[in-house]
Specification:
This protein has about 140 residues and is mainly alpha-helical. It has one domain. The longest helix is centred in the middle third of the chain and has 30 residues. It is elongated. It starts with a helix and ends with a helix. It comes from Olleya namhaensis.
């Protein structure tokens, strides 16, 4: 059940990350004003990504990725390494980037200053997610 929740919640997280990132990039490069909707989009993205992280942590600790395998065997198997090591680390870093961008934007006083950290850090997070998302599993649900 946790794996299914993690899989389906990921669609919402991905959608919100794309919306927040594109919105921030358009506002930043278009020199547009920061508005309350921008705050809500960034906050909702932060919230759904943190929920996904918590679900992922529970999943990681409840799945038996390693079984009787040694670290050498896990690291030698590309599929197992991706699921047990690379994907969790990349997603943890992506959530960290989202958190940093959101935190930095709150401290800024100007409109341009508020949108720039969101544009930078949410873009970094989206790139990480795009790089380590298990695309083959996504289209088989």
């Amino acid at each position: 059940m946790i794996k299914m929740l993690h899989s389906y919640w990921a669609y919402l997280v991905f959608l919100m990350m794309v919306i927040a990132t594109v919105n921030a990039l358009i506002k930043h490069f278009g020199k547009k004003e920061y508005e309350p909707i921008d705050f809500r989009i960034a906050l909702f993205t932060l919230i759904v990504s943190h929920i996904q992280l918590l679900i992922g942590i529970v999943l990681w600790f409840t799945q038996d990725y390693f079984g009787e395998s040694t670290i050498k065997e896990v690291m030698g198997n590309s599929a197992l390494r991706s699921n047990a090591v690379e994907h969790p680390i990349a997603m943890l870093l992506a959530v960290a980037f989202i958190t940093i961008g959101y935190s930095k934007h709150k401290k800024k006083l100007t409109s341009a200053g508020k949108i720039k950290p969101i544009a930078i850090f949410y873009t970094l997070a989206l790139v990480l997610v795009l790089a380590k998302l298990p695309w083959n599993a996504w289209f088989n649900l």
